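The pair is quoted verbatim as follows:
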Amino acid sequence: MPAERPYDLIIIGAGPAGVGAAVQGALYGARTLVIEKGCVGGRLDLARRVDNFPWAGEEAARDGRQLCRRFKKWLATAGVPVVTGAVERASYSRGRFTLFCEGTTAYHASSVIVATGVEPEPWRVRGVIGAGDRVCRDWRMIPRKRGEVAVIGGGETAFDQACGLAERGHKVSVLIRGERSRAYPGLVTEAIRLGVVIVTKAAITSVHRDGRKILLTAADGRSFDCDHVLPAIGHRPRLPALDRSARLKMGHGLWLAGDVREPVCRQAAIAFGDGVRCAMLAWAGREPDARCMR
């Protein structure tokens, strides 16, 4: 239930940026609340391995889900409550923010950090709707029974999930629109070692389901058949609706942290630090630099 008096700080989202902001807020003694509609850790829950986060030196923390569990435990140790819910709208009036969740639930705070991260870009190709459950966004949702999987995309998310599927015994192909991948070389090398086939200049234009198989057709006429398709073509910011009254407080009580405002450098370690930074600014009441004002 919402508290009667406003929180000092509410963080929307419990990914790396949200956790960083929450822990920093707790260190200051701020009355802090985290609102998360999914799981603590955000997109890290999909990560097969995380090699560039400070905890990643510990073998047990290299798995994304394990890192999410570490985040959850950290929030509990810091005494920061996490409530489950999706913030649909935020407004500002009379010195405080009001966050409206599903139904009639509302929370109030002096400062708000939006750390809602990103959501997958929709894969808009002809026939994708007819492919049904053969098109998956989560590599763990693909049945463990060995089969052929086409991963669409050339970034780190695509290659990380391709490696996870290959380790499960699937025959995996990564279909890249451009001439080369955007993943770091070590990950590409690992994918090749695991037997992942990398196909470049494969811009998929249509999907056709034929019984138990999926047929993919590229712009140059090439075709590829598989059992499942996993699009990993990029992400876009996911923001709650912000009333004009709230937007006017951007940088003066309202901050965007992590991937929701970072267009390029979307890494867990960077997002975590950005969350810490925004919590420090919120507590100090300082005006951030221009980048945080975007």
About this structure: Residues 129-231 form a domain with the FAD/NAD(P)-binding domain fold (CATH 3.50.50.60). The first helix runs from residue 16 to 28.
